[in-house]
Design a protein that fits this description.
The complex is a heterodimer of chains A (398) and B (138). Chain A is of the alpha+beta class and 398 residues long. Chain A folds into three domains: 14-110, no CATH class; 130-315, no CATH class; 319-395, Copper binding periplasmic protein CusF (OB fold (Dihydrolipoamide Acetyltransferase, E2P), Beta Barrel), CATH 2.40.50. Chain A is built from eight helices and 16 strands. The N and C termini of chain B lie far apart (38 Å). A four-stranded antiparallel beta sheet of chain B has the order 1-5-6-3. Classes of the chains: A alpha+beta (398), B alpha+beta (138). The A-B interface holds A 1-3, 15, 17-24, 26-27, 41-45, 50, 72, 91-93, 109-113, 116, 120-121 and B 26, 39-40, 43-50, 61, 64-65, 68-69, 79-80, 82-88, 107, 109-111, 115.
Chain lengths: 398, 138
């Protein structure tokens, strides 16, 4: 840049990026020919010269500064080299002078105000290229999926651990549920057979930039026909994502995949919606040798949650519990039923339709209750929980 | 509209608009004085400003140096005072730009930045169009 010092110990500098510009670049990053980066800020203007503070920074530190990971002030006072340069650039053609100073000696008048940070999107991991993933899938003969997430709070290629872990776990659970359904023996509850789990198990094989992406590969390789249960499960997942919030498309898909898949898909989407993330999926299959992509922004994720929730409720299969109603509150719509058989007790929420036959159920009486389960995420703890909904109630005598 | 003779050919850029709307600028005097509206090209004579268009807005540093910085968002201008020590003692001034005051272009250096470059035509004195709106510089 025109105002960068020349013929000094800092080397031949070139401007990398401007962060503040007022008639001239006022806060910027530059780099010399050997690759050393500097962060520079304009500190003073006199009749003869302009003065700047230059501080050497590593590339990693610079990325951290531009993403807001550390305050601008700290970038100067707590520099890795512990020394900075005060550079005087003459207005005319005179000599640029350079003074090396200790970072701790920089005064308030030479520093950005406390609390000021940059806030720029900063990839800190290389993005995994689509072609690379397709090639990796082909070479290893196994299915590869890349989920690209974008967490609005993260300016670097980083992800909040809790939300990220939950999304990963939900994705695996969805693969298991779909795989179970594709096998043709899906149940709404209970354990999924270990044989299915072995075939749908995914391994995290890498992370990458471009927002934050996580790469999964099926742990089981495809068979000689280049087919696998993981491949079928991923194909169904892609179809679901492509259906978006279209109720008919989703109903059609879940008529094959059954209730557990709907619940698991809803839970994944709820995790994404809760993290304010969208979802960008790339599927690389050795069978097609092509990448298949689907994108959902956060708004679409939220819309799809609503649609899948409706279907999930339709598909939830009710079951009966016979027992003594020991608690009933029609204000809070809470109920508690102790089953006649040991271990069959259930507590939960009374839905209005449960009261159609018995508008005023009494505690202590015996009833035949129809209950439906709904899996939810506790908004406070983020934990998954099962909520029991009372949808029907009949006196036991009838 | 006639431009200063020291403007390079093609400056202001063809896609700049007629100046219009409320903008904010940091000035050293209250009320603003003519030297508060001196472009970088004149403040730093003899410098070799880069002629390559900048990727974020397509305007070269040479053209930028011929113009003046104004912000659409008051808070962007105020923030410059916090970030850049040299600007801490400046006053925040606001003004209503009219087409006779030249050309303007949005020249953000990052997403969401309201930085505009304003090219003032020959013989136009913009000082009376701006009024200091903050009380005391920090």
């Amino acid at each position: 840049m025109d105002l960068l010092p020349r013929n000094t110990a800092l080397g031949e500098l070139a401007l990398v990026e401007v962060y503040a510009y007022v008639d001239i670049p006022c806060l910027f990053a530059c780099r010399n020919r050997s690759g050393q980066h500097f962060l520079a800020v304009w500190i003073e203007e006199t009749a003869d010269a302009n003065r700047w503070v230059y501080v050497p920074v590593s590339e990693q530190r610079l990325r951290f500064v531009r993403s807001g990971g550390i305050e601008l002030r700290d970038a100067f006072t707590a520099a890795e080299e512990e020394s900075a340069y005060v550079v005087s650039v003459p207005r005319g053609q005179g000599e640029t002078t350079l003074e090396r100073v200790a970072c701790r000696s920089l005064t308030d008048a030479m520093l950005p105000s406390a609390g000021e940070r940059l806030d720029l999107d900063t990839p800190t991991l290389p993005a995994a290229e689509d072609e690379e993933l397709v090639r990796a899938a082909d070479e290893a003969r196994r299915e590869v999926v890349r989920l690209k997430l974008n967490f609005p709070e993260c300016r670097r290629s980083e992800a909040p651990a809790k939300e990220f872990a939950d999304i990963i776990a939900c994705f695996q659970a969805l693969m298991d549920a779909i795989g179970h359904a594709v096998k043709g023996d899906a149940t709404t509850s209970g354990r999924i057979p270990s044989d299915v789990l072995r075939q749908t198990r995914m391994a995290v094989t890498g992370t990458g930039g471009g927002s934050f992406s996580v790469i999964f590969a099926a742990t089981a390789a495809n068979n000689v026909l280049n087919e696998s249960l993981a491949q079928d499960a991923i194909a169904e997942f892609i179809r679901l994502a492509e259906a978006g919030s279209d109720l008919d498309g989703l109903r059609q898909a879940f008529s094959r995949l059954k209730g557990r898949s709907a619940t698991r898909y809803r839970l994944l989407l709820e995790r994404l919606a809760g993290a304010e993330s969208g979802l960008d999926v790339l599927w690389a299959s050795p069978r097609s040798r092509m990448g298949h992509t689907v994108q959902m922004d956060n708004r679409r994720v939220v819309e799809t949650v609503k649609a899948v929730s409706a279907i999930d409720e339709e598909l939830a299969e009710p079951y009966e519990v016979v027992g003594t109603l020991y608690a009933i509150n029609l204000h809070s719509m809470y109920f508690g039923l102790e089953g006649l058989r040991e271990g069959e007790g259930v507590t939960g929420t009374v839905l209005p339709e449960a009261l159609s036959e018995v508008p005023h159920p009494s505690a202590g009486e015996q009833y035949r209750a129809t209950v439906r389960e709904k899996r939810e995420i506790n908004s406070l703890t983020g934990e998954e929980r099962v909520r029991h909904l009372l949808v029907g109630l009949r006196p036991l005598k009838k | 509209m006639e431009w200063p003779e020291w403007f390079p050919t093609g400056c202001p850029p063809a896609d700049a608009n007629h100046a219009s709307g409320t903008f904010y600028r940091l000035v050293g005097n209250d009320p603003p004085a003519p030297d508060d509206f001196t472009p970088g090209f004149l403040l730093f004579p003899g410098r070799n400003f880069c002629k390559r268009p900048q990727p974020t807005h397509g305007v070269s540093r040479l053209f930028m140096a011929c113009g003046l910085t104004v912000f659409r968002a008051k808070e962007d201008a105020t923030r410059m005072k916090e970030i850049v020590p040299r600007l801490r003692n400046k006053f925040l001034a606001g003004g209503e730009l009219m087409p006779d005051l030249g050309k303007i272009k949005h020249t953000p250096h990052h997403e969401g930045c309201s930085h505009h470059c304003w090219w003032v035509p020959n013989g136009m004195d913009p000082t009376h169009r701006f009024t200091v709106i903050d009380e005391e510089p920090a």
